[in-house]
Specification:
heteropentamer; A mainly alpha (189); B mainly alpha (485); C mainly alpha (517); D mainly alpha (663); E mainly alpha (106); A: 189 residues; mainly alpha; Four Helix Bundle (Hemerythrin (Met), subunit A); 0% strand; C: 517 residues; globular
């Protein structure tokens, strides 16, 4: 049962991913991406990763995608159409065909690699198997063995914060305009 | 593992290993806070220099102070004399970049503190990369290096080229990060481990021969190749180097590349011997791409960007030699260390002087360099020295590095590749000489267009002198550097 | 210690010049002249004080060695690289030539270097250090170090003070030479791996025992580097351009010393260090040398630019040196060695003279002249003298060298010797043609009629070379006596190699005197 | 070779002229320095002839002393030597610089210094007023130095030094009047053609070293002379050595095919022609062969070859002299012809006869040249005999002495030329076989010689005066010029006593004197089969025949031309092709230009332009250009577009994946 | 869920390939950024699939989820920086297309 659900979700995820590429407006892409994220989240859950499933929803859907939406709104890119429309224009042309070939090749390489690699046979898991990413275990790993990257991430987030401020903060009065008229277009509202 | 031995992990050894990073992190926070208060420029400068100096001293202590901590924090991080030396290289590259940045931006440019914070953050990232014994640690280090650099590249956000540089670097960097992660996942899936040391175990090594692991390793390699700008992952380099503020370019050219190679040298275990030929081939193609690309340039900064690609190719040849030869032999690591150390001094000096010259007006082109020897004899002679060092002429550090790297290749029976590489470095001299020609042997076509030189800041002067001295010292008396590494 | 002083004295001089204010040109010239004179005095003193090492295996009289740095190879055993200088007869001669030539070169710049005197003097002095170091280094790495360092000053000398096409010429020169030496670097790396030492003495002792095939690879790399520098036949095209564009002083140093670095290298490394390979490759090298003689001469004959003509004649003359060296007979080796010095003197003089003419007339085209002897009799005297010395007239320096070379090569390969001999004829053809067109005939061009004869400075600066030319021609033993033991040693090594590779190349034995004697 | 006590004074024989040369040169330079301001500045140069002549006289006196000293010794022990040991001891080549005065070199020395002295004296008058007065004597003395080194040196290398040295001086002196242009060209030609010979000389010397391991002439001669048999290889080497040495002689002594420089060399001042191109330098080839006579005697087929070349040269020279209008050209071709005679003698193994002719030729040819110079001097630098005539009235002393020289040259009985020439012909005849033909050529040449000599006398001194009386006022030369003429005239007439033929039953003085040197060669020749001695009757017949030819053709030549140029014009009209061919020395020179010089010149341009510039340098520059082209093309990949960078990255990653997965 | 690990990996490969494709063909910078997120998610899925596999084999399996957590964190950071850069670009060029950032080349 859950296996069938997985394949359905997998299809959803792939369709969502395709939607990201094919959506005419960025807004459509976001919606598609959201679908993928949700599908993945459920798959995580099915595969026994409860914490990750939650984190996927919280961080990706809740934070990152909202950020995307926010920027799209901010830049007035969402006005292009409220309906979800597909456009195959990006897949046309020689370069896109080349890109398509590369992508297909990547998928094939991944498939073949996975197929030719011998993984130990999966035994059927118990229906009520405990989550693989139990909180205690995760915590011990994060604060134990991986405490260094964990702390480094704090510096990383701090640096990210600073970086974002540097890049996106509104320009002060008197700061030089850009080469193409910073005052006029630099601060869309 | 339980909560008690969590704390035990942070013993004195681990602290000693992490101290150089902590010093920088502390400096970073303090600089950030200093921005909140109306403190003078001097305070900020003092903090930056002090934290870098502290880090350098701590590294120096690790290097010269006898026993090194070795692998700490459950084997995720290593602090050896090699990483200490790399650390010194990173500190030096950050310091040079910072010194050159002091007067680079306009007086009233905003976010000076943030600029310095981001620079310090990159240095921490580099050190994490060099010391990483676990792919997670490496990944965080990589991002800690990259994310601030994305912002730094776009630091002059009022200039389209700077933003373009930041955006290109960012997008492609993220793309490469995707490769890295997917590759790590495949490696993990096959071997069940992310630790480089565990991967060196015979069982894991056997697993590493599986197709999926090989694909994973290839993707990881691709992402590192991107960072160190190796063909065909190098195309961003000229654009980003050109668009980024020049001191940042210096940092990218020296620090990032050094960190990438530091990781490559310590992650050799991932690469089976059969990959050596491919890597050597890529190395040679990279040298060709870099050198021929540079040959077509008239903008000196862009030319140096391509030259950086060529140098990455040279170093990669050393990596190929290391793969091919006995990995336990320390020579390749030493060769890449020496090469990088010399390259840092050289490239930092060169880019720094370009930063200085830019302030005289506009980008530095071959045209604008004409007659520089008459206008600024010292700058011209220093730039000449750097060009010769980049070209690997003896009596400069560049020669020593080139010699060592090619000797690794010859040692590993990659002599054919070495010969091609050597011939390509003749092409390289072709464009380095053009810089010298412009400065010394040509005079400006319109004297009126040449603006009067603006005096160099003390920081710039100091940095240039130190760079030049290092280049000469490694070239003439290489003993000390070879002893250190 | 003397050697260190000798080598780095010019560098000190360069630093001193560097410290002078830019406008103080007189001071700069003075320092440069004083430094080179001091080096010359030192060089001559070393020459006179050099005692031929006795048969009891005594060490060479002058040597200096310090550990320099360690290269990290050989399975954990580092290779110690030494900063070691030493002088044997072979380097003695080259060093003395360098030391003596430089003050003359500096003095000659009074006439033609007017701009950026300071830089000029600095580069000149740096170059001298590079050249002396190259000749004195007895460590492979150190040799390579000096070898390439000496490349750079000339690059600037030609590039800044050269003629119209100077940039083309200087880049060509630099890149061409560099291409060769980089391959040599690969060979040096390989040798160091192979042997674990960079000491020339040890390598000379050891490398003779490596397999022939390996030696041949090393030989090829070294010979290419040196062949380009010499320049040997197909690699010569940079030379006429460089010479034509270089300022007089640059040409003199280039012809006088820098090219000798190539032939010196051939002797020191390709022959002395790799005797088996030298024996195996000798027929090819002799062929290149002999064809080079003829080719260079024919090339010179077709030139209309005086400087280019002399440059082409260098190709021819250095063909002699290569022919002689690779005859691998005692006479050939000695002749080649002697010819190196001779070429330095004769061609140096020729370039000086052309330079003096150019300073007055601002033209080097043969057609622009005619009847110069009428207005510049002293110039004509020196010119004819030099031409004769260059053409190998007995009694002057060129002869003994040429004779020995041809004799030596005749002993090992009559064919190439005879082809080389044609150079004797064609040498006279192009040199006399140039002389006739320039000096003789009626002086009709009004520009030529206004030419003034040589002044005292110009005469004085050429006199030492003239004296040397005569001295070498009349008493070559005074010079070669100091070299002979070392060359004989080389010859012995080659003879041993010949026997071991006798199957490769049939050797013409020296027919002993007729039975009845 | 037993060594004798050192005779260091021998060095002064060559050194005196060298010193003289240096001083004269310095004097010349002194005039140069002052020339611009001071018209009297040439005063120092007027000292030059005194110095030069003094040096020559000193040298001559020393030569005579040496000669006398030699005479005191036993014939077998007639060597005076002085050696500077270890002159060159390099690379296995050990050469001592030594001087050796033996009968052969003493004869040469006497001729060189004696005739040389006379010519110096003559030149001091002839060259007066020339602005290169001092320089001239410096060169002339230098020449004598080199020539003396050539004949006195004990080793072949020493000989070669002199050999090239005389070539150099010849070059300098031919081109003495370089402003005129063509003398400079002639000088160059002379030097280059000599160089061709010198190259052969060098090969010969290499072969000698291979054979004997030494270049000491006496040792070589002695070794060959005392060796019983040679291996085939050695014999071949000997023949080759002799051949190549003879090649060197061809250049220096103007033998076919290298003789064409000598007529052109007449561009030099006349004393130079007399000294260098008649009396001394051109005979050095003969000297060398005589010096190494055992080698040549043992060289088998080379000896006949020499004889053939000699005869051929004699014929070419003689026939060409028939139609020349330039008086010096007549003498020049005559010299070529006479040198041919000498080689005919050498080729016949008549060493002493060859040297005898060298000596007599030195006397009468120097005399003729000097006489011609006197004429030219008196005629204001006119050399065309068609513009002379009737000069015997104007310059009687020159006329008389010239007659003596002409008579000797044409071999009129009892004069010096008669005896030396007949001895050569007799020796050739005696060898038989092939040599009969050579004898016939020689006899024919003798006839030609008599004819052109007297044609020259007739055109110059007889007939109507064909010069322009307004501009030319012929006058006798000063005493300083005519006095040497007289001395030489006496020598030309009496020189024959040195070598009277055996039929007269008087000793052949020169042959006896040279016997210690030539015995070895004669001995080797004597071993070869064949009749070497002529009967007295036959000798008489040959003598008579010689006299008849000389007298008859002298008469014809004189009478055909004594009334003017009609005969010449008639001949040129009647046989234009023949006249042109003869006038141009059988067109050999122009053939050289066409067959050798021009193709070489074209080759040189081909190499310079096509091979060097286009091919080799094109390859070098092409490499650079290709690099730049690649660079320009490679720029296209960096098109600034993010998508294409990503494409490259994706493709690259994919390629690495694929490569490694399937590796 | 009784799905072979390989199938999870297939899905991951497909997502990755789509991400790569989108990155290469889309011009809108925001969408390009989303494609990067797709790639990261593919990696995460692969990590978790691998982790599940190791867990099934009874081996330690927590590194996968830990890495995934870090990836999510870093993804957020990258998104923030990326969007800030997009804003900066838009300010200068009034465009969020990659073509707006193609000034430098050669």
């Amino acid at each position: 049962m859950s296996s069938i659900l997985f394949y359905v979700l997998a299809l959803v995820a792939l369709l969502g991913a395709a939607g990201v590429i094919l959506a005419k407006s960025p807004m459509g892409s976001v919606i598609s991406l959201l679908g993928t994220f949700f599908a993945l989240s459920v798959i995580y859950l099915l595969a026994g990763f409860q914490f990750l499933a939650a984190a996927q929803i919280l961080v990706y859907a809740g934070a990152i995608l909202v950020l995307f939406l926010f920027v799209i709104m901010l830049l007035n890119l969402g006005a292009m159409g409220s309906r979800f429309e597909l456009s195959f224009a990006p897949l046309q042309g020689g370069r896109a065909r080349l890109a398509g070939a590369i992508a297909v090749a990547f998928a094939l390489v991944g498939l073949i690699a996975a197929q030719r690699t011998t993984l130990a046979a999966t035994s059927a898991p118990a229906a009520d198997a405990p989550a693989i990413d139990g909180l205690e275990g995760l915590a011990l790993e994060l604060f134990g063995r991986y405490s260094l990257p964990f702390q480094a991430v704090s510096v990383l987030l701090l640096a990210t914060m600073v970086a974002v401020i540097v890049l996106a903060k509104r320009q002060r009065e008197g700061e030089h305009g850009g080469e193409r008229g910073g005052e006029r277009g630099g601060d869309p509202r | 593992m339980n909560a008690q031995n969590l704390l035990q992990m942070f013993d004195a050894n681990a602290l000693r290993a992490l101290a150089p990073l902590i010093a920088l992190a502390l400096g970073l926070v303090l600089v950030l806070f200093a921005g909140v208060f109306p403190l003078g420029r001097a305070v900020r400068a003092t903090l930056v220099v002090a934290s870098l100096a502290a880090s350098a001293v701590l590294h120096g202590n690790l290097l010269l102070g006898g026993e090194t901590p070795g692998k700490v924090l459950a084997g995720t991080f290593e602090s050896s004399s090699t990483t200490a030396m790399w650390g010194l290289v990173f500190v030096a590259s950050t310091l040079f970049a910072w010194l050159y940045s002091v007067r680079y931006y306009e007086e009233d440019a905003p976010f000076k503190n943030e600029h310095d914070v981001l620079m310090l953050a990159t240095a921490i990232g580099m050190m994490l990369m060099a010391g990483a014994r676990d792919l997670i640690v490496f990944f965080i280090g990589l991002e800690l290096l990259s994310i601030p650099l994305y912002a730094l590249a776009a630091f002059r956000r009022d200039r389209a080229r700077s933003v373009e540089a930041g955006l290109k670097y960012f997008l492609l960097g993220a793309f490469a990060a995707g490769f890295f992660l997917y590759g790590s996942a495949l490696v993990y899936a096959t071997t069940g481990s992310l630790s480089l040391d565990t991967l060196a175990d015979p069982a894991a090594r056997a697993a590493l021969g599986q197709p999926m692991a090989l694909v994973g390793v290839a993707l990881i390699a691709a992402s590192v190749f991107f960072k160190v700008s190796v063909f065909p992952f190098h195309l961003w380099v000229p654009d980003v180097y050109e668009g980024a503020p020049t001191p940042v370019t210096a940092l990218m050219a020296t620090g990032t590349k050094a960190a990438g190679f530091a990781f490559l040298m310590s992650a050799l275990v991932l690469l089976p011997a059969s990959t050596a030929t491919t890597v050597a081939l890529i190395a040679v193609i990279t040298m060709a791409a870099g050198n021929f690309g540079a040959l077509a340039q008239t903008d000196v900064k862009r030319m140096l960007a391509y030259s950086g690609i060529a140098h990455a190719g040279t170093l990669l040849l050393g990596v190929a030699g290391a793969i091919h030869g006995d990995p336990s032999n320390g020579a390749p690591v030493q060769a890449s260390l020496v090469y990088m150390a010399a390259y840092v001094a050289t490239a930092a000096g060169a880019f720094g002087l370009l930063a200085l010259l830019e302030r005289d007006g506009g980008p530095t082109t071959l045209e604008s360099l004409k007659g520089l020897a008459q206008r600024r004899p010292w700058v011209a002679s220093a730039l000449t020295l750097f060009m010769l060092s980049l070209g690997g002429i003896p009596a400069t550090g560049g020669f020593l590095g080139k010699y060592l790297v090619f000797s690794v290749a010859v040692r590993s029976e990659l002599t054919g590749f070495a010969i091609v590489g050597v011939l390509l470095s003749v092409v390289a001299l072709g464009y380095y000489l053009r810089v010298i020609i412009a400065m010394y042997m040509q005079s400006p076509e319109h004297d009126a267009n040449v603006s009067a030189p603006r005096p160099a800041s003390a920081a710039t002067t100091l940095a240039s002198i130190v760079c030049a001295a290092l280049v000469l010292a490694t070239g003439v008396l290489p003993g000390w550097l070879l002893e250190l590494t | 210690m003397e050697l260190v002083l000798l080598t780095f004295l010019p560098l000190l001089g360069a630093l001193a010049v560097l410290c002078t204010p830019r406008a103080a040109e007189g001071l700069q010239r003075g320092i440069a002249l004083a430094t080179t004179l001091a080096v010359a005095v030192l060089g001559v003193k070393l020459f006179l004080g050099y005692d031929v090492p006795g048969g009891d295996g005594a060490a060479t009289p002058y040597s200096f060695s310090l550990p320099w740095f360690q290269l990290p190879w050989r399975d954990g055993t580092p290779t110690q690289v030494h900063f070691s200088l030493a002088m044997d007869g072979i380097s003695l001669l080259m060093v003395t030539l360098t030391a003596v030539l430089m003050p003359i070169v500096i003095l000659s710049t009074w006439g033609h270097v007017e701009k950026r005197v300071k830089e000029f003097m600095v580069w000149m002095l740096v170059m001298q250090t590079g050249m002396l170091g190259t000749f004195l280094a007895v460590d492979l790495v150190l040799f390579y170090f000096f070898w390439e360092v000496s490349l750079i000053p000339l690059y600037f000398l030609v590039g800044i003070w050269g003629g119209e096409q100077r940039l083309y010429a200087t880049v060509k020169f630099f890149l061409y030479t560099l291409a060769g030496s980089l391959l040599m670097m690969v060979a040096i790396i390989a040798i160091l791996f192979d042997r674990g030492t960079s000491d020339l003495g040890e390598l000379i002792a050891q490398l003779g025992q490596t397999p022939l095939e390996q030696q041949l690879w090393y030989f090829a790399a070294f010979a290419l580097a040196f062949g380009i520098k010499v320049p040997l036949l197909p690699f010569h095209t940079w030379l006429p351009d460089a010479h034509t564009q270089a300022p007089t002083s640059g040409s003199v140093v280039l012809a006088g010393v820098l090219l000798k670095m190539g032939t010196y290298g051939l002797l020191r490394f390709c022959i002395q260090m790799l005797p088996d390979a030298a024996v195996a490759a000798a027929p090819w090298m002799m062929a290149l040398g002999a064809i080079g003689i003829l080719y260079g001469a024919l090339l010179a004959w077709a030139q209309t630019d005086l400087k280019r003509l002399i440059a082409c004649s260098s190709v021819s003359h250095l063909g002699y040196v290569v022919l002689g060296l690779f005859a691998l007979t005692p006479a050939g080796l000695s002749g080649g060695m002697l010819q190196m010095v001779n070429h330095g003197i004769s061609t140096g003089l020729l370039f000086l003279l052309v330079g003096m003419l150019y300073e007055r007339r601002h033209s080097r085209a043969l057609d622009a002249f005619g009847g110069v002897a009428t207005v510049m009799p002293l110039f004509a005297l020196f010119w004819v003298f030099t031409v004769l010395s260059s053409a190998g007239l007995p009694g002057l320096n060129g002869f003994v060298g040429e004779y020995l070379i041809l004799l030596g090569s005749f002993q090992s390969s009559p064919l190439w010797s005879v082809i080389g001999l044609t150079g004797v004829i064609f040498g006279a053809v192009y040199l006399l043609m140039a002389t006739r067109k320039m000096l003789f005939g009626a002086c009709t061009n009004p520009e030529n009629q206004r030419l003034t004869d040589l002044n005292a400075r110009e005469i004085v600066l050429m006199l030492p070379l003239v004296v040397l030319a005569v001295w070498l021609g009349v008493r070559p033993n005074d010079f070669m006596g100091k070299v002979e033991p070392d060359l004989a040693e080389v010859g012995r090594r080659v003879a041993v190699a010949r026997q071991s590779t006798a199957a490769l190349e049939p050797v013409t034995p020296l027919t002993e005197g007729v039975a009845a004697r | 070779m037993p060594s004798h006590e050192s005779h260091a004074w021998l060095w002064w024989i060559p050194l005196l002229p060298l010193l003289g040369s240096a001083i004269a040169g310095a004097l010349h330079l002194a005039t140069l320095r002052a020339r611009h301001g001071d018209p009297q500045a040439s005063a120092p140069a007027s000292l030059a002839p005194w110095i030069a002549c003094g040096a020559m006289l000193g040298s001559f006196v020393l030569s005579v002393t040496g000669f006398l000293e030699l005479r005191e010794l036993e014939p077998a022990a007639r060597h005076l030597a002085s050696t500077a040991h270890d002159w060159i001891s390099i690379g296995g080549l050990d050469v001592d610089l030594g001087l050796l005065l033996d009968p052969l070199s003493s004869v040469m020395t006497l001729v060189i210094t004696g005739v040389g002295f006379l010519i110096h004296v003559y030149a001091s008058g002839y060259m007066k007023g020339d602005k290169g007065y001092g320089k001239f004597f410096a060169y002339l003395n230098l020449f004598v130095f080199a020539m003396l080194m050539l004949v006195l040196s004990s080793s072949l290398l020493g000989v070669f030094i002199g050999w090239e040295g005389v070539g150099l001086c010849s070059f300098l002196l031919i081109g003495f009047w370089y402003e005129k242009g063509w003398p400079a060209e002639a000088a160059q030609k002379a030097f280059v053609m000599n160089r061709v010979g010198d190259a052969c000389f060098l090969i010969g010397s290499f072969l000698l070293i291979r054979l004997f391991d030494t270049l000491d002439l006496a040792t070589i001669a002695h070794t060959v002379g005392s060796t019983v048999s040679f291996t085939d290889e050695q014999a071949l080497d000997m023949s080759l050595a002799a051949l190549f040495l003879f090649g060197g002689c061809c250049g220096k002594s103007a033998q076919f095919p290298l003789f064409t420089w000598l007529p052109d060399a007449m561009a030099g001042p006349t004393p130079v022609s007399a000294l260098i191109h008649a009396a001394t330098m051109v005979t050095s080839g003969i000297y060398l062969v005589v010096r190494l006579n055992p080698l040549f005697a043992a060289s088998g087929w080379v000896l006949p070859l020499i004889a053939i070349v000699g005869a051929l040269t004699a014929l070419i020279g003689g026939s060409t002299a028939l139609v020349q209008r330039d008086i010096k050209k007549v003498l020049a071709y005559s010299t070529v012809s006479q040198l041919g005679y000498m080689f005919l003698a050498l080729g016949s193994g008549a060493w002493a006869a060859a040297l005898f002719h060298v000596v007599t030729h030195a006397f009468f040819k120097a005399l003729l040249f000097l006489g011609a110079g006197s004429v030219i001097h008196g005629m204001h630098e006119e050399q065309d005999m068609h513009k002379m005539g009737g000069l015997r009235k104007h310059m009687p002393q020159t006329y008389i002495t010239f007659l003596a020289g002409a008579a000797a040259l044409s071999g009129l009985p009892l004069l010096s030329g008669f005896f030396s020439k007949d001895e050569i012909l007799a020796h050739a005849f005696a060898n038989g076989g092939l040599y009969y033909g050579l004898w016939a050529v020689g006899a024919l040449t003798a006839a030609l010689t008599a004819y052109y000599t007297w044609r020259m006398v007739a055109l110059t001194f007889f007939g109507e005066e064909r010069f322009d009386h307004h501009h030319v006022h012929p006058h006798e030369s000063p005493l300083v010029m005519t006095l040497p003429l007289m001395v030489l005239a006496v020598l030309s007439i009496l020189g024959g006593v040195l070598g009277l033929p055996p039929v007269l039953h008087v000793p052949h003085l020169l042959a006896e004197w040279l016997a210690p040197v030539t015995d070895a060669g004669n001995k080797i020749l004597a071993q070869s089969p064949g009749e070497h001695h002529l009967s007295h009757a036959l000798e008489w017949v040959l003598l008579g025949l010689g006299s008849a030819i000389a007298l008859g053709f002298a008469h014809t030549g004189f009478h055909a031309h004594r009334h003017g140029t009609a005969q010449d014009e008639f001949f040129a009209r009647k046989r234009p092709t023949l006249a042109a061919t003869l006038g141009d020395a059988w067109t050999i020179d122009s053939r050289y230009a066409r067959i050798i010089v021009l193709p070489l010149r074209m080759l040189s341009f081909l190499i310079a332009v096509v091979v060097d510039q286009f091919a080799i340098d094109g390859l070098v520059n092409g490499t650079g250009r290709t690099a730049r082209d690649i660079a320009q093309h490679s720029r296209r990949a960096v098109d600034g577009s993010l998508a294409s960078y990503a494409l490259w990255m994706g493709a690259g990653a994919l390629a690495i994946c694929a490569l490694w997965m399937w590796s | 869920m009784n799905v072979p690990t390989a199938h999870l990996l297939y899905l991951s490969a497909g997502l990755f390939a789509l991400g790569v494709l989108g990155f290469m063909v889309r011009r809108n910078v925001i969408v390009v950024l989303m494609c990067v997120e797709l790639m990261l998610n593919a990696a995460n899925l692969a990590f978790l699939a691998a982790s599940r596999q190791h867990a099934l084999e009874g081996k330690p399996a927590l590194q996968g989820p830990v890495f995934a957590i870090f990836v999510i964190t870093v993804a957020a950071a990258e998104a923030a920086v990326g969007l800030a850069l997009i804003i900066a670009l838009y300010r200068l060029k009034q465009s969020a297309e990659t073509d707006a950032a193609a000034e430098m080349k050669g």
